[in-house]
Amino acid sequence: MENLDQKIDFLKNRYISQLAGLDVAAPAKWGKMNVRQMTEHMIDYVRIASGKTLLDIVTPADMLPKMQGFLASEKPFRENTPNSLMPEDPLPVKYASQQDALNELQAEIDHFFKVHQQEEARVTPNPFFGNLVFGQQVQLLYKHATHHLRQFGAEV
Predict the structure, then answer these.
(1) The domain containing residue 29 runs over which residues?
(2) Does this model's pTM top 0.70?
(3) Average pLDDT in the chain
(4) Which is nearest to 17 in space by CA: 145, 151, 147?
């Protein structure tokens, strides 16, 4: 895993501003979510990374080493990467505005870093990648965040 400190800095200090710079009416280059739905989707996955939302691991145990090998690489998620936990059609938005969703996402990112700072050895399950430590969760959040920024044409 390369540049962990840079990925931490990105998530803490630059990610929200990049999301805020997206046109909420911009069409996705792939997938069915719009910018608001994607922002709210990321809130859900930061909550998983912090342990606030606990989901069962759905990847078979014998596949987890391969999944974690991909996670450790610098390979990005492919366009239209399937997510078996998401419905066929995107969920309706929950927040009144994109700014409200961005505020909540920032709060969840802050919470993620706080809980991992308080408990450095914390292991948190991810439904696809298994039990992950802090550096792996940062890597996953970074891959996930940049995947969705690219989905809406942002330079990352």
Answers:
(1) 4-77+98-150
(2) yes
(3) 95
(4) 145
